[in-house]
Task: inverse folding
């Protein structure tokens, strides 16, 4: 029977219940011959827009709905007839989630549930089905069903399902009788949980995972068979009474609401006293007079640019959009004032800064959205704003973390909780999660799973079966077979709801009528049920409020300098051509700097040798997947070298028409906007066409679409007298570059912050280190490496001290004093409380007065914060024996009742390991200094490499600091080893990595042998053999838990 | 044990099936060495007697279970 329409289907957005993605359901429905299908996830429309768009492309009509949970635990299925109905569904779902986070215990997620009254009050425009076989309202509470039938007069159906469980016949007979009594019709549904029978096993496993148990332990919760899959219409219809099956068509015909036509509007300031265009011009003119006052050489150009931009904004009708962002920035200013406090030296700093292509706009500069003068920096507007713009442009704003925290809540309050929310994100299953969750559900041994998870690549769960082959041991039998199958099937399914890093959506019409809103895990924040792709598809305006660790660090440093030295630094006025700063950058002395500190950046810096901010702008954008895959890096470096040697050198270009658009980057594509420029210059594309090409490259890439664009590109190029072969070559490079690069404006904004960080690090190294340590986690290096680097540059770093440290890191006589907050087990509040009670006379006094738990106090002693009172072991003994206040009772200051026994002194090894274990860093002896005399063979120190000839075979030893496996490097792994003198770069070719996978990934102390390579000023060891120094170190140190004490290497890229 | 073309039982223990009261399916323990794949029928036989029978998916064998 073709008339059957499935009205009850769950996707993977019924988290850990549905086993298929919405687009898989849509595609399967089309394949089976459905012309309509409903998506009814539990308490949400998370996947509904994705589903609606997928259906539309496949010629299937999407019906929007949800299976809503009532406070009693019963379910009803709601389907949208109209826009009013959808708005009501969103309000019902918002209400269902409102109580899922209890104030003060926001981290704990409670089950969703709304009331019968709420559902009844929002019945307009909705069709109500009475719910599923197990939990349906008509099954568990027929009286309540009767009340809803009344509220939904004419739009209430008793739902009949056939899950092939024992008791189906009796239940359906009772339901039919209830329908007759209530005078409402019945309708058949399939309660689909998978698009295809091959996902049915996964559905079983998901139920086990959701219930935090095994498949064996979840018999009651599981369905017991594999019938809940999408069947062909005729097959589904056969299972249930003909009349109920036929009625699915009647219900489907009622539900004509199309989610792809939502009617969203952002606040556009159209209700102000003046039109939005006039308001925007007034703000810009005011700022223009300030910024371009006096004899500014750019004034005339800036005036022309401003008029041009404002006219374009008026034509596009986007004045309200800019005013909205301006208003957010004004809010940010208020938040910053509040966070920084009155009279703070940070007042000279803007509250945040723009990133992305918006930095190219003068209007953004004048409204405070960007801090880079686009006229002076010669930034183009192209990508951000043009006449052919199809959607609202993106504006990304970076804030120091503390300002951002406040701003998110302030924006929600300013526009109202019904009008603003954060964008959601849905973490999906990758290999580690798949290994752990599926393995646990199958009851596989925990140790085996952990072993596999550790060596797994981490990303692609479809490859887990392959990775399992490489782990020693017999992984045979049905459980392991199922493990191989299910990890592949679960790959890419969403696991739970999380929060986008900072995207907010704001709406004129109540947002809660456009998408349900739920409380987030952080107090005061709320999320909408859509991720950034769905928000973009809905046309929502997303404002990205991003937290940037370096901005926090820079603010902290400026603040400290002002307080300690009385120097007020306005970072917008520092000289941008300080030779000493560039000398350090050119020597790749950049540990701790923004954007240019990574191993790959350092290697590049040694060859490109940036001399000014423009060079740095290219540098920031160069070491990115786009330019790497677009094969731009080596030609750029080579052209720079040739130009350095011969200023008359004319670099080659693919075609003369590209010389001008690629002039800044010496003939190669480095910036995203150059993709547009090249397409326009070579193929004669319009701005809009070029932007279309860029989008085709950057979104989920479709081979067909890219090939269609190739034909247009080559045809256009031919008309521009570019021969076909060259046109293909240029196009291939553009495709190689794709979307994985920075726009120039974004790179310029980041380059400026990179320079500012370099300037602070050079002139105020101690303040800068202190600020960096306080802004962790951030950047490429762990705190331990930042400290070692600073020590090598002559900065004194002092360990935590119970009487001298503050809660955070501070400066003390020009040295950096590690804060008490760095001691693990000491929480932020405890660190503050301990600092507030200083000074303490001895351990007994500390135990008596410090408002901190015993664990925290023990950690303080173990970390060396009390070393001035004696040996750590003896202090721990005394701390254990010291009386502590209990139940608010004061403790009498009486002496110890027992003598401290004679305890062995800690060795250097023990002290160093305790430092690392308890504070993640050590300011004392380096492990390699202690280990070097015991190494099995002579190993060169990092300070001896300068004299080693290219090609020599050498061995080095060190502690792994960073490990990188970039997707663009074809399996090559880069490692950074640190010894007592500095760092050594290791390059591990894929066979070496495969042979030593476990050592590379898990061992902190390593010995590497191989061939020394020197290219230009770069020095690398191409590793041939690698071994762990763990057993040797354990022997020498007589310490069994060495591995867990030393910091783990930071990992970047593919695992 | 005899069955119709659609797999429903026709004769059980040499008696005609008067009524199939209910059918249900169990597919379980597929991750173990003893997977279960059964199609159950709750029957009334011509003698008026109740019977629950199932067909094992793996072996194709019919078995009776106490009703």
Result:
């Amino acid at each position: 029977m073709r008339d059957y329409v499935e009205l009850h289907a769950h996707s993977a957005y019924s988290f850990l219940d549905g086993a298929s993605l919405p687009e898989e359901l849509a595609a399967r429905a089309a394949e089976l011959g459905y012309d309509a299908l409903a998506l009814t996830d539990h308490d949400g429309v998370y996947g509904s827009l994705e589903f609606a768009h997928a259906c539309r492309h496949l010629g299937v009509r999407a019906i929007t709905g949800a299976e809503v949970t009532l406070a009693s635990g019963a379910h009803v299925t709601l389907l949208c007839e109209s826009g009013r109905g959808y708005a009501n569904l969103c309000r019902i779902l918002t209400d269902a989630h409102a109580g899922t986070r209890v104030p003060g215990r926001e981290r704990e997620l409670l089950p969703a549930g709304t009331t019968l009254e709420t559902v009844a009050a929002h019945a307009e425009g909705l069709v109500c089905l009475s719910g599923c076989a197990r939990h349906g309202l008509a099954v568990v509470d027929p009286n309540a069903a009767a009340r809803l039938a009344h509220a939904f007069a004419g739009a209430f159906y008793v739902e009949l399902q056939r899950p092939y469980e024992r008791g189906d016949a009796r239940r359906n007979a009772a339901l039919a009788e209830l329908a007759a009594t209530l005078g409402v019709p019945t309708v058949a549904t399939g309660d689909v949980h998978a698009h295809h029978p091959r996902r049915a096993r996964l559905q079983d496993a998901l139920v086990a995972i959701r219930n935090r148990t095994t498949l064996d332990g979840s018999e009651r919760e599981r369905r017991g068979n594999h019938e809940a899959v999408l069947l062909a219409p005729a097959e589904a219809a056969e299972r249930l009474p003909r009349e109920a099956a036929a009625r699915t068509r009647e219900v489907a015909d009622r539900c004509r609401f199309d989610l792809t036509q939502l009617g969203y509007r952002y606040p556009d300031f159209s209700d102000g006293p003046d039109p939005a265009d006039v308001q925007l011009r007034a703000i810009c003119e005011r700022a223009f007079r300030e910024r371009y006052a006096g004899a500014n050489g750019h004034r005339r150009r800036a005036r022309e640019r401003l008029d041009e931009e404002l006219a374009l904004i008026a034509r596009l009708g986007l004045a309200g959009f800019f005013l909205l962002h301006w208003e957010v920035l004004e809010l940010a200013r208020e938040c910053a004032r509040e966070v920084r406090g009155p009279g703070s030296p940070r007042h000279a700093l803007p509250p945040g800064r723009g990133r992305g292509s918006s930095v190219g706009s003068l209007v953004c500069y004048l409204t405070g959205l960007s801090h880079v003068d686009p006229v002076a920096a010669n930034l183009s507007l192209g990508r951000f704003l043009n006449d052919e713009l199809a959607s609202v442009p993106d504006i990304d704003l970076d804030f120091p973390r503390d300002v951002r925290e406040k701003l998110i809540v302030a924006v929600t309050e300013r526009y109202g909780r019904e009008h603003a929310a954060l964008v959601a994100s849905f973490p999906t299953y990758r290999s580690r999660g798949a290994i752990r969750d599926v393995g646990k559900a199958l009851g596989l041994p925990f140790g085996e799973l952990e072993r596999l998870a550790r060596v797994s690549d981490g990303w692609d769960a479809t490859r887990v079966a392959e990775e399992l082959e490489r782990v020693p041991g017999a992984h045979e039998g049905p459980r392991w077979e199922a493990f191989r199958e299910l990890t592949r099937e679960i790959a890419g399914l969403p696991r739970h709801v999380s929060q986008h890093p900072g995207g907010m959506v704001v709406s004129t019409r109540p947002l809660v009528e456009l998408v349900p809103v739920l409380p987030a895990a952080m107090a005061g924040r709320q999320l909408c049920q859509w991720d950034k792709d769905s928000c973009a598809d809905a046309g929502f305006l997303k404002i990205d409020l991003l937290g940037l660790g370096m901005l926090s660090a820079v603010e902290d440093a400026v603040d400290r300098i002002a307080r300690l030295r009385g120097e007020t630094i306005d970072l917008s006025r520092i000289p941008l051509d300080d030779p000493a700063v560039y000398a350090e950058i050119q020597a790749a002395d950049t540990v701790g700097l923004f954007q240019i500190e990574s191993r790959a950046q350092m290697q590049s810096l040694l060859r490109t040798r940036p001399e000014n901010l423009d060079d740095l702008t290219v540098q920031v954008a160069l070491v990115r997947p786009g330019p790497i895959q677009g094969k731009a890096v080596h030609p750029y470096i080579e052209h720079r070298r040739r130009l350095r040697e011969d200023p008359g050198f004319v670099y080659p270009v693919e075609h003369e028409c590209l010389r001008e658009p690629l002039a800044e980057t010496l003939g190669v594509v480095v910036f995203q906007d150059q993709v547009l420029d090249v397409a326009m210059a070579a193929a004669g594309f319009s701005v809009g066409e070029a932007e279309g090409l860029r989008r085709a490259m950057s979104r989920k890439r479709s081979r067909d679409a890219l090939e269609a664009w190739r034909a247009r590109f080559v045809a256009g190029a031919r008309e521009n007298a570019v021969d076909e072969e060259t046109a293909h070559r240029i196009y291939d490079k553009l495709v190689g570059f794709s979307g994985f690069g920075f726009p120039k404006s974004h790179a310029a904004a980041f380059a400026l912050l990179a320079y500012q960080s370099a300037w602070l690090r050079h002139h105020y190294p101690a303040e800068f280190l202190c600020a960096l340590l306080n802004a962790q986690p951030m950047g490429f290096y762990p705190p331990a490496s930042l400290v070692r680097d600073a020590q090598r540059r002559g900065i004194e770093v002092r360990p935590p001290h119970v009487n001298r440290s503050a809660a955070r890191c501070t400066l003390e006589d020009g040295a950096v004093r590690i804060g008490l907050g760095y001691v693990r087990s000491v929480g932020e509040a405890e660190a503050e409380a301990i600092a507030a009670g200083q000074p303490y006379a001895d351990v007994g006094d500390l135990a008596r007065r410090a408002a901190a738990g015993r664990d925290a106090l023990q950690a303080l002693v173990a970390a060396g914060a009390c070393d001035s009172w004696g040996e750590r072991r003896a202090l721990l003994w005394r701390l254990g024996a010291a009386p502590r206040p209990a139940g608010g009772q004061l403790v009498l200051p009486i002496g110890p009742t027992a003598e401290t026994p004679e305890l062995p002194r800690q060795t250097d090894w023990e002290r160093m390991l305790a430092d690392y274990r308890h504070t993640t860093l050590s300011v004392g002896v380096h492990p390699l200094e202690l280990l070097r005399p015991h190494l099995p063979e002579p190993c060169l120190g990092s300070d001896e490499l300068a004299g080693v000839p290219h090609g020599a075979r050498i061995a080095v030893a060190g502690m792994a600091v960073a490990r990188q496996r970039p997707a663009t490097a074809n399996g090559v792994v880069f490692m950074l080893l640190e010894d007592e003198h500095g760092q050594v770069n290791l390059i591990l070719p894929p066979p070496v990595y495969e042979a030593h996978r476990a050592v590379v990934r898990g061992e902190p102390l390593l010995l590497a042998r191989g061939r020394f390579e020197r290219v230009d000023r770069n020095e690398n060891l191409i590793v041939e053999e690698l071994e762990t120094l763990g057993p040797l170190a354990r022997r020498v140190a007589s310490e069994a838990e060495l591995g867990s004490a030393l910091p783990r290497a930071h990992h970047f890229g593919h695992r | 044990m005899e069955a119709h073309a659609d797999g429903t039982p026709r004769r059980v223990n040499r008696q005609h099936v008067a009524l199939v009261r209910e059918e249900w399916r169990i597919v379980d323990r597929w991750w173990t060495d003893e997977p279960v794949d059964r199609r159950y029928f709750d029957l009334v036989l011509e003698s008026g007697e109740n019977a629950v029978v199932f067909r094992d998916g793996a072996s194709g064998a019919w078995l009776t279970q106490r009703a």
Chain B touches chain A through 15 residues (CB under 8 Å). The mean pLDDT of chain B is 93.
